[in-house]
Design goal:
about 675 residues; alpha/beta; Substrate Binding Domain Of Dnak, Chain:A, Domain 2; Rossmann fold; six-stranded parallel sheet; 28 helices; globular
């Protein structure tokens, strides 16, 4: 820690400045310890900035418009608000509903752009690999390639001389890559993956006129519609917002997940660990942070090379310890078992341990303040993406190129190893870490429910019908420094599983659950209701299933689709006893995810804050009218326990509509019984 002494000298000058109470800032002991250490060293973190920087109340309400140079026009909700006499207007006459809707759909556009640009980058690398333009990437999962090809209209067989023959896998891969890449900008038609949804769901989208044409067009059209003086009808704005969100969930994100699985391998459950305690004082610590696994896959491969491990030993280390933050963490966990270092809000704290020799970042959710924190330690902060640089002079930029992937990764890992010798003596790694089982997917869940030959979602449906499992919840999303770190995530999930609701999780919620010890089969007997606990014990799965990163929310959509296909629980996703949740969201991506989940027919509750409170009419449209159109709607509840019980109430409502609101004894069903259920 070369410059800690300089920081310590500043500590007394900053003593009078307000700082966060570690106990009030987070429920996690490792996080609390590192917040205290940062304050002792005079290093400011996001937790302290949360105390000194207050959010704009009008911005939180969604009624501040700055889409032209005549603004910002700020329309706060009056304390004596009366809908009948509400005459608030911007300078151009825009109403609170128009302003809030414009802001909301711009968030959808930002989130859809982030996820879908991630998908585009993966598609570019996939096409390079398929064309043999790079030696670093190959097609690893040929079975998934053959499953995905027909969904993109790519034939897997060819007829020759009256005989049906298998096509060459390399030819199929190239055509899949070309078809996938075309989804971002094709001139006509609609997204190919939309037909993966249940037919009744597709028909709803068609009737409402929200079938996405291509991914980029829907995002661009939002930006046009929300330009000053264009679309001024909140319902029409949300129609385009829904189309762009579907282009994310059933387009860019789903394509990213599939192509990553084909290139890097479809995930299956792996044992690992989570929290800052995964860092090792006697190892070279490389923390990978961001969202695109194209780089991290190569760093993992290079760090495991015997010659690289030997090089680390020559520098005095016992080996190389990789760990991850945010969604890149989830990606390398689900495919390689690389441990989770922490959530979004722990990124600064990982460096404050003094043990991180290099932090390698790509895109999304990366604090610019990492550079300021890294200055206080020996840590090398390395940016790798052409669209994501930092202005500070202590940040290294090593632009990653798939055509030189191994060389770029070797350079990064060697920099970290060489930096090990510069580490200070005052290393403080919190001891907290939890064992986890992570890396479930649509395919592995099916396997766990029935094995290689009997795998089916019918087993899940049967246990929902007989009442052992009350329902399914998708709990996802970020951390938000405006609320207590991880409290909402953990409280919501624990309340759900206590009430026999099985949880599918991604993103930082998945990491929070991992840190709390909820991603082990053993946790079921401690935290679950009797029905879910019995299922977890019988099948050998955790009550909270880690499905990956935030783009992998598409796995939740497909899992819900498989439940519909299995029969007995209705004909559409909106019929299922299913609910969604984002307890601590903060990113525009969460708004895009929420809207495509709602448009897919799932009731979805947001925590922390919801950016439409200043426009009650528009908010009512999202919270009530949307359900009449799509069968799903948004809701808001800041209190985690009330939040969970809103979800449970919705699940119970769906059980009642299906006629399964009363638990019954499990019975063995023969083939005719199953046919009757499916009918």
């Amino acid at each position: 820690m070369a410059e800690v002494t300089k920081v310590e000298k500043k500590a007394s000058a900053k003593a009078s400045k307000k700082v966060a109470d570690p106990m009030a800032a987070s429920v996690d002991k490792a996080t609390q310890q590192m917040i205290r250490r940062a304050q002792d060293l005079g290093i400011e973190t996001c937790f302290d900035r949360n105390i000194t920087i207050k959010p704009c109340n009008i911005g939180n309400q969604g009624t501040c418009c700055k889409n032209c140079g005549m603004g910002p026009c700020r329309l706060p909700l009056p304390k004596d608000y009366d809908e009948a006499t509400d005459d608030r207007k911007g300078l151009c006459g825009a109403t609170p509903n128009t302003i809030a809707a414009r802001n909301f759909v711009r968030m959808i556009a930002g989130g859809a752009a982030a996820h879908s640009d991630h998908g585009r980058a993966v598609a570019e690398v996939f096409l390079s690999a398929a064309r043999k333009e790079t030696d670093a990437y190959q097609i690893k999962d040929t079975r998934k390639l053959l499953d995905v090809a027909p969904l993109l209209g790519v034939a897997t067989t060819v007829e020759k001389d009256g005989e049906v023959l298998d096509r060459d896998l390399d030819e199929i891969a190239v055509e899949v890559g070309e078809k996938a890449f075309n989804e971002w900008g094709k001139a006509e038609g609609e997204l190919e993956y939309l037909t993966r949804a249940p037919k009744p769901r597709y028909e709803i989208w068609k009737k409402q006129g929200v079938l996405p044409r291509n991914i980029d067009r829907e995002i661009v059209e939002i930006m046009h519609r929300t330009h000053m003086g264009v679309d001024q009808d909140y319902k029409n704005l949300m129609k385009q917002g829904t189309r762009a969100a579907l282009a994310d969930g059933w387009g860019g994100s789903m394509l990213a997940t599939d192509l990553q699985d084909i290139m890097f391998g479809t995930p299956f459950p792996r044992v690992s660990e989570a929290n800052l305690g995964v860092l090792k004082e006697d190892h070279v610590n490389i923390v990978i942070h961001g969202h695109e696994p194209v780089l991290s896959e190569m760093v993992v491969a290079v760090a495991q090379k015997p010659e690289m491990v030997e090089y680390a030993k020559q520098k005095g280390a016992k080996g190389i310890q990789l760990s991850g933050i945010c969604c890149t963490a989830n990606e390398i966990l689900e495919r390689h078992g690389v441990p989770l270092c922490g959530t979004f809000l722990q990124q600064e704290l990982s460096i404050i341990t003094g043990a991180v020799d290099a932090m390698v970042v790509d895109v999304q959710c990366i604090f610019q303040n990492l550079a300021n924190v890294a200055k206080c330690f020996h840590t090398k902060l390395i940016t790798t993406h052409p669209i994501a640089k930092m202005e500070q002079d202590n940040v290294l930029h090593i632009e990653f190129d798939e055509h030189h992937a191994i060389e770029d990764a070797e350079r990064i890992v060697k920099l970290a190893i060489d930096n090990f010798e510069n580490r200070g003596t005052e290393v403080m790694i919190p001891p907290q870490k939890s064992p986890i089982v992570a890396g479930f997917g649509v395919e592995s869940v099916e396997y766990h429910l029935g094995g290689s030959f009997r795998g089916t979602y019918y087993t899940l449906n049967d246990n929902i019908i007989n009442g052992r499992i009350r329902g399914i919840a998708g709990v996802v999303g970020c951390n938000n420094a405006r609320v207590k770190h991880n409290e909402g995530h953990i409280a919501v999930v624990k309340e759900l599983i206590k009430n026999d609701v099985i949880v599918l999780t991604t993103g930082c919620n998945a990491i929070a659950c991992a840190m709390e010890g909820l991603l082990t089969p053993e946790s079921a007997s401690v935290f679950c209701g009797p029905g879910l606990a019995e299922i977890c014990e019988t099948v050998g799965i955790p009550p909270v299933l880690h499905l990956g990163s935030c783009v992998d929310n598409s796995r939740i959509l497909l899992a819900a689709t498989e439940v519909v296909k299995a029969g007995g629980l209705g004909n559409d996703i909106s019929d299922l006893p299913v609910a969604g949740s984002a307890p601590e969201w903060m990113s525009e991506k969460a708004i895009s995810i929420g809207q495509y989940v709602v448009a897919s027919g799932i009731y979805t509750v947001f925590g922390a804050v919801f950016p439409t409170a200043g426009a009650p009419v528009f908010q009512r449209y999202l919270f009530e009218e949307m359900e009449k159109i799509y069968g799903g709607m948004c809701d808001f509840e800041a209190d985690p326990i009330k939040h969970a019980h809103k979800m449970i109430a919705h699940i119970d409502k769906k059980r009642k509509a299906l006629g399964i609101d009363k638990a019954r004894d499990r019975v063995m069903m023969d083939f005719s019984d199953r046919q009757a259920l499916e009918a």
